[in-house]
Amino acid sequence: MKKLLLSMLFCLCIVNAKAQSDTISITYSNEAIEEVFRRIENLTPYKFYFHQKWTEDKKISGSFTNKPIDFIVEEILKTTNSNYYITKDKKIILTGNLIVYNALPEGFNDKKSSDNKTKNTDDISDVPVFFNEKKSNNSTQIETVRVGKASKTSNRKVFNLSGKVIDFATGNTLSNVSLRVVNTNEGVTTNNNGFYSLELPLGEHIIDITSLGFQKITKRVIIYNDGSLDFELFEDLEELDEVLIEADIDENTRETITGLTKLDVKNIKTIPLVLGERDVLKVATTLPGISKAGEGSSGYNVRGGKEDQNLILLDGGVIYNPSHFFGLFSALNPFSIGEVNIYKGNIPAEFGGRLSSVFDLKTKKANKTKVTGEASVGPVTSNISLELPVVKEKSSLLVGGRGAYSNWILKLLDDKDISKSSASFYDFIAKYDHEINQNNNLSVTGYYSKDNFSISSDSLFSYENRLVSLKWDTKINKKNTGSVQLTNSNYAFNILYDGEAINDFDLGYNLNETELKLKVKYLHNKDLSFDYGLAGKIYNINPGEKKPAGSSSIVSPIVLPKEKALESAAFISAKYNVTEDFAINAGLRYVNYSFLGDIAQRTYLQGEPKSAATVKDTLYFGNNETVKTYGGPEARISGRYFITPDVSVKASYSNMYQFIHTLSNNTTASPIDTWKLSDLNIEPQKSQQYSLGLFTNFSDNLYEVSLEGYYKTTNNVLDYKVGAELLLNTTLETEVLQGKGKSYGLEFLLKKSKGNLNGWIGYTYSKSSIKLDSPFPEEVVNKGQYFPANFDKPHDFSLVSNYKITKRFSASMNFVYQTGRPVTYPVGSYYQNGQEIVVYSDRNKFRIPDYYRLDLSFNVEGNHKVNKLAHSFWNVSVYNVLGRNNPYSVFFVSEGGEIKAKQASVFSIPIPTITYNLKF
């Protein structure tokens, strides 16, 4: 290969570089361009001069008979970005992106601008691109990249630059990376698959590429035509050590959607949590608007919503029970999670089926270049995650597993019944990611978790989650990207009673759903983009099956009829930057729900309460026959306006439908709660939510402050009658009530993201109440007035802080205070026929004692040598340092003729733990 400096091209003093009339015949098949050039040199007197990178190692095929040399060269270079120039002395010089001009276009000198060489050339189609290599002092520090192939015949003024942003260390693409064209209003962020697309005019542009946790890079890009350009980012370790949550430091003010919380999964390892287990969902509860009903509750309450009103997604598939070990641990492997977005205000139109929130969790893409992994060993659990390249730089596999050895810890618990119990759990996850080509990506995720526990010596409980997700992402064209996703989720629990042989039984429950979603993103321009698509979901529920266990059991079998439903939706949303300060995000989702046979449904006398005595008729529906249809439009709209460059105000409105409900008469969510579909007698829940907030950053984005209020109303909230029997009940509609709910609150967040001392303060004032009224006395609760919901806790305060003592040592603190949740107390008693009858207060009239807890931890990083086999991390923490006996529940027993109150606590003493983490 011969090299020739480009400067030689401009001093050739050639009057005419017209292609020669020489003709040749040549055939080549799947050969490198360089080899074809060599063959032409052997056949002709022509010699090629080029830089090897301009041929891009491409393989080409072709066959020509008596064709001019310039025609053949033109065809060879069609798949490259290189032009060429033929001299009179039979030299063929490749010029890269450039075209060699013999003369400037007519009128060029009159229109050329000294400041912007492409500024005044819109009317000239063949003007060359000029830029000054020495126009700035730091120009040598900025790499210059040429994109596209210059053309004399093109009349276009704007060209498309697209590509992806890659993590240099792992080879994975990076989402939400900001690309900004300096000194313009042009900019874009990469999508979920790390791809971007920019419309840029001909000529020179300086582009800044930034992402939290990575070093900023700047490139000078010379645009000649449409083309692609990938960027590689290097991890910025110092920044990662300091920032705790959220992606972009000023995104809280810029983001249009209200009530969006993003967690930086990489940096929650220092927060002290129960038993030293890293847990993204537990960290979420320290942020405003997200809480749990109790220390051992398995559900989450978001902005005054019930536990069943949260849609928890893992790679698009639903996780119905996200908890292990009585709600103390998340059921999600913390080493496998790459991104967490929690929508608690204006939920994007692509999501539906829940009223309060969407927890959108995505597993990370495994390293495509080398084997890496993480592992941890703690007092209760051990965890491992491996990232394995399958085809280097093309495909990878993530596998993770976690198990518990927790029986010893149960003996420390305050509740004597629980201290005699046993519990264990495990979960597995695997994700295969394959980059088919630059425009197509395929990913497959599989997840399974199982819990086994025994509260008493004669019963064994178990529950499990299973999920499979298949997703294909594609770049349709310059302005459109799309995805097709198929998911299947399964949740099941089982109760095996092994007591007296004649009463032994085996009880099971199963819920299965399958969803297909098609989504397209259309980028109209930098200010306007659309998301639209279709979604369809099929529910299949086995509400319960009880059968005798063992040959001696006389338990009568019970099998409840299966339930089936189809939920389908069409959605569209638009994000529009009306001005530089004002932006809106508006969406519409139309949802249709059909409850399907094969099933029997009862109808009841009009004007009478639902009971066995008021059954009017029983209707029978065949397989897939429509029993009842619900649905309608759901509006999602939010807006953001910058009052000043650092202060924005946001407002939103949304209405939602929810067609599936939990059935429980426990105070908090339980692993054996059942899910019930809306049918002929149970209507779907509906909600409307309004929110308004003020957001600002100050001190060069060192501090973030937000204040957001909301008001939400709900219809058809499902509750229960006093003494209701919900499990294995064939007439559930006679045991439940549907009423109204309302909630409102104010959320405050102060966060410091940088410096040796960092963390956040979160405070929420909220009220959540329910109204169960009816013309029939047996369906009225608390005289038909609003009363506090089980999870109503007006004051919720969290303080999370981390202090970096040195680069290796840090200390962390987590303090939580919450108002005690509501409870129903006995207020008196009387005797009737010699039997004492207890009189209870109105439902949820009283409260258990307030909850507060202080956790401390000390963190030790391994040495920071770059070339070492593995990096270690020790976490020594004490959970509940103050030994606060926080009540989990309050109950009442009769002792010596008196009714006495008792309280159960999960942890009533300090719990020290030490966890060793290894990353390699």
From TrEMBL:
Signal peptide coordinates: 1-19
Coiled coil: none
Keyword Membrane set for record: yes
Membrane-spanning ranges: none
Gene3D superfamilies referenced in this protein's UniProt entry, alphabetically: 3.55.50.30, Carboxypeptidase-like, regulatory domain (2.60.40.1120), TonB-dependent receptor, beta-barrel domain (2.40.170.20), TonB-dependent receptor, plug domain (2.170.130.10)
Subcellular location per the Swiss-Prot or TrEMBL entry: Cell outer membrane
Gene Ontology cellular component list: cell outer membrane
Keywords: Cell outer membrane, Membrane, Receptor, Signal, Transmembrane, Transmembrane beta strand, Transport
A Pfam family recorded for this sequence: CarbopepD_reg_2
Limits of the TonB-dependent receptor plug domain: 277-353
Keyword Signal: yes
Membrane topology: Multi-pass membrane protein
Family: Belongs to the TonB-dependent receptor family.
Descriptive protein name: TonB-dependent receptor
Source species of the chain: Pontimicrobium aquaticum
Phylogenetic lineage: Bacteria, Pseudomonadati, Bacteroidota, Flavobacteriia, Flavobacteriales
